[in-house]
Amino acid sequence: MNFLAIRYLLSRKRQTILTLIGITLGTAGYVTISGIMLGFQTYLLDQFINSDCHVRIQARDEPIDEKFVHETLFDENTKINWIAPPSGRRGEDNIENVPAWTERLDRDARVEAYALQLQYPVLTQFAKVTTSTQLIGMNPGDFLRVSKIEPYVTHGSFQNLAKGAYQVMVGEDLLTKLGARIGDSIQLSLGQKGSQAFKIIGTFRFGMRNKDEGTVYARLADVQTLNRSPSKVSSIAVRLIDADLSLPFAIEAAGKSKELVQSWEQINESTLSVFKTQDIVRYSMTIAILVVAGFGIFNVLSMTVSQKQKEIAILRSIGYEPNDITGLFLTQGTILGFIGGALGLLIGYGTCVLLSRVEVAPGRAMGMGRMLIDFGPRSYFIAFSIAFFSSTLSSFIPARAAGKMEPMDIMRAEG
Amino acid sequence: MKIEARGIRKSFGTPAQEVLHGIDFTIESGEFVALTGKSGSGKSTLLYTLSTLDKPTNGKILYDGEDTSNWDVKTVHRFRNLKTGFVFQFHYLLPELTVLENVLLPAMKTHAENQHRDRAKELLETFGIADKISRLPGQLSGGEQQRVAIARSLIMHPKVLFADEPTGNLDTQNGDLVMDLLRKINREEKTTIILITHDPDFAKQAQRQIHLVDGKLSRAD
What we know:
Number of strands of chain B: 10
Shape of chain B: globular
Distance between the termini of chain A: 28 Å
Helix content of chain A: 40-55%
Shape of chain A: elongated
Number of helices of chain B: 7
Structural class of chain B: alpha/beta
Oligomer: heterodimer
Largest sheet of chain B: 6 strands, mixed
Radius of gyration of chain A: 32 Å
Radius of gyration of chain B: 17 Å
Largest sheet of chain A: 6 strands, mixed, barrel
Strand content of chain A: 15-25%
Number of helices of chain A: 15
Order of helices and strands of chain B: EEEHEEHEHHHEHEHEE
Structural class of chain A: alpha+beta
Number of strands of chain A: 12
Helix content of chain B: 25-40%
Strand content of chain B: 25-35%
């Protein structure tokens, strides 16, 4: 019946074209919106997963109160009458038992690599310009195994930090802000603990201004020396073999320690919730468009069934079964869904290619300032499936009604 | 193919109104029978009941002794496709298909259109419309459309041809032409023909007339 279904579609060109436009726009809309949103999401997820660690272990930021002092200094039977109850926060935020953590991480088969870090806010000064930055101390070899940061390096190499003392890698925006050049020395100050000159040996650009303007990387030993705390570690960055295991790993590790253990999903929870909202908007918009197209197909086919009753009676009288008649109209819906879906994919792809050439922030971010568009097959598969199945579904009711028509009822009605 | 009607009754509506009141007759293989009677006498109802397009409320239709009420949906449709042909007063051609495609429509059901293509062309040649093979029904006259409908009904070499006033909507010349074709088919292909007609001249051209009055058999010549 495919032959006849195609003839029926061709015989009412205007309705067919209008219906196809609806399906095509819905599909193209989904592909384009998904391309934009997923491109943005993929970029950010890449930043979360690759430019940082999968799981971060750090000292819990605990307040000091009556309960804390009681549990720490006295047994539970001791009664204490406070003249002034204690309040405040711990002055240090270092991990207390680093060897125990490293031993545990060495044994865990899920762990690919880990890097000890010491992170402090410092004042960064070059000539007469001073700005506040985060100084991150790490062992370059370990750090590069944990953070896939190399693609973001715009000059020099993190490996070179290990080749000499008091060297730093800085964000490109910080370099610009300070008015410094590679090879210049900048002064990093920890207030009363002193300050030290560090030589800039390279730059990086994540595309996120807060990081590119506010982060300085140096060797762990140099940061510990600057801080006058030779063995101090404020956090451990962990990379797992499978990033998808980050959350269960963090939950399990947090349950066994007093440190704060967070996966990249927990650290970036607020951003990820925005992604979910974006996904809901994306699906809602597309479903709305395709529902309209689906109703179009439903209306057109219902009208066609009504207009083709005589032909249905003829087909039944010459041996076409009810299923054949249902198939005749269902096929029209699937053909519309297939062609509309395929055209939508092509138009959506073309739009995405054009959008990927649009400059939104020249020189910034991974896409060299162009719009980051996702071209992954998943969106195309989903878009086509939605178009095809919504078209098939909306043609099913009129098709089934046509299949149920009895030739004699039609002939009697025709008189 | 021998056709037997045994106690055929047919009712419609609520409360039930009986249109056929117990009809019995036999049509032998290769007969040309005219079903006659006034409007509302039950001719069309009887024809469609005989053809399996409609079911009797009571009674049996037997084809070569086989009770059609025992047939399932597939058997009924295979029977319609392979053993019967229909010609209606209003030609009921599919307007989207060409003349040749309309004729081949029954063969398309079993994807046998290529096997029947030569037969279709022969029929159209016989019916004098071979030059209009690629035209759409809308480009044909009423008489030509009816000839296409008859060619379609004959494409599968049916054993029985049911014709519901095939000349009713045609002028005299075209009516005569259609009757000539039906007689020719009956004579040359031994096809059993059951024809409804209001025209006494056409009815006389049949071998036998079955006359209905108010849903009852009045005369079976």
